[in-house]
Amino acid sequence: MQPSRQPSRPIRELPDELISQIAAGEVVERPASVVRELVDNALDAGATQITVRLLAGGVRLISVEDNGMGIAPGDLPLALRRHATSKIQSLQELEQVGTMGFRGEALAAIASVSELSLLSRTEGAAHATLLDARSGELQPGARPQGTTVEVKELFFSTPARRKFLKTDSTELAHCVEAVRRHALTRPEVAFAIWHEGKLVEQWRAHSGEQALERRLADVLGEDFLQDSLAVQGEGPNLQVRGRVGTPDAARARADQQYAFVNGRFVRDKVLSHAVRAAFEDVLHGQRQPVFVLQLDIEPSLVDVNVHPTKIEVRFRDSRAIHQAVMHAVDAALAAPRTALAGTPLAPTGLREEPDRPAAVPWSQPRMTGWSSQDRATLQALWQNPGTAGTPAGTDPDPREARAQGSYAPPVAAQATPGEALVNRSWSGSAPLGDAREAAAAAAPAPDEAHAEEWPLGRAIAQLHGIYILAENRQGLVLVDMHAAHERIVYEQLKQQCDAQQLAAQPLLIPASFAATAEEIACAEANTETLAALGLEIAALSARTLAVRAVPARLADGDVVGLARQVLADLAQHDASTVLERSRNELLASMACHGAVRANRRLTLEEMNALLRQMEATERADQCNHGRPTWRQLSLRELDALFLRGR
Predict the structure, then answer these.
(1) What percent of the chain has pLDDT over 90?
(2) Mean per-residue pLDDT over the chain, rounded
(3) How far is CA 67 from each of CA 146, 151, 160, 321, rounded to the nearest angstrom?
(4) How far is it, in rounded angstroms, from Cα 536 to Cα 510?
């Protein structure tokens, strides 16, 4: 059935009211949109106290009161005109916007779909002035300095839009969330939210160096502050600050992810991916990290005029922003958090000891049970000609040295007893028995006087060959020895492999697949990066790509799926990020094979050695698969189990 054709009409200008209602469809989606716009204006006016009053979730009434500078009586009618604003006057100012609002559309759009009134008083004015948006009538009013904007019966003139609104409780939740976003980045401003005459939320103003931390605790709870890490980073014309939750605090939904650019809440894929990339080594699966990050950037380097809601931005150099945020978050996650279990650590992650010797380089892990590809890849790491006849970072076999009469334990002179055991008891250079004998003969007894100062404490037992039990000042520490050692081996493998390329295996029959023009262009532009990943991808035709070589470790996997995934990552992200991610996946698999296995009995010296190594290893709180490596049980929790003190 052919649709009926509309009769021909001449081109005419739309009436102003219809233009405003069309604009309102972009700016005003629900009551929360109105709350956001009005709070933006209050902050731009310099308000330090903002009160939001709502009825029926904001549908019947939205009132925003502030103590800002106010609006002069002569400017009140102009404030309701479309594209009328005091915040920008030229293209140069538009390109360097420093205020929350600037488009001059919000009040006009809101007034076109509701009953709006403005009550404002400037400093030194004899009285306030009230403006009714419908009639345009001005009359005297009473209020202190500042502005009150009342919006009644939202969408009364467009009832079809009103049908799309949810329940009052749902709309109220969205309004509270809109104010919460402002509160998180403005600790110097007090906020209060009332609904149906009852106080729903209130956040008092804070000042001083700890103002932001106290506001985060008020808004997100004390648990967020305790389970998060401070983030601080700087770059050219850029500063990153805020807090990120620990991997254990990750959530099933991305409902506690707040990113701000120059004080403006934004949803940006560059920022969210940068945070996720930093968590990649410690958070796996579908869990979502928690964060509150503030980016202070030169206004000319970011475009906020992307969408009428101003919730989207565009960076001039998105790659630099991505790297700055990723490195800042990664640095916060890398520091060992074992200090939470005991006394604070020194900046290096070790307790301060004037006579503490330096640690020895990590030695080659056992290769028992490894595949030939893993063994070959790892063996290449120790083919460094830095030592004659001995792989770099390993010690000569003590049995051969004893036979030649020249054996002297080198570990004792360079490492603490704990590090010596870790570096030898799990290496391939000597059986476990020889390592125990060498450590016992050459190393002095552990310094029991400082045992309580160790963040992870002193080992006291092994449980079922899986867990290590240790005691510290706080109480009891439980350690998953395989997960902990896996992280230690993984981090050391990454350091050893920084300058290496993944070995490639040519395919006897190249795997071809249909590709888009973007995939073909990406493959041709990133030939060197693909080669570093062990991939060789070439174009067969204008619509076909062929995979001729893949990483040797992944030769038996889905070759085409791997190629598509790598090309998709290269199209969106920096080549070095893709290279590092693929390399780390291979090393994580190798570290899992090389870590100490469950049901292996360890001596107390070996257990203490593992604890000391954990305290000095980055990201030692999670294994390669995102699982925690240790847990703390405080004395208070232990007392509660046995009803002590009741």
Answers:
(1) 30
(2) 77
(3) 4, 18, 36, 36
(4) 10
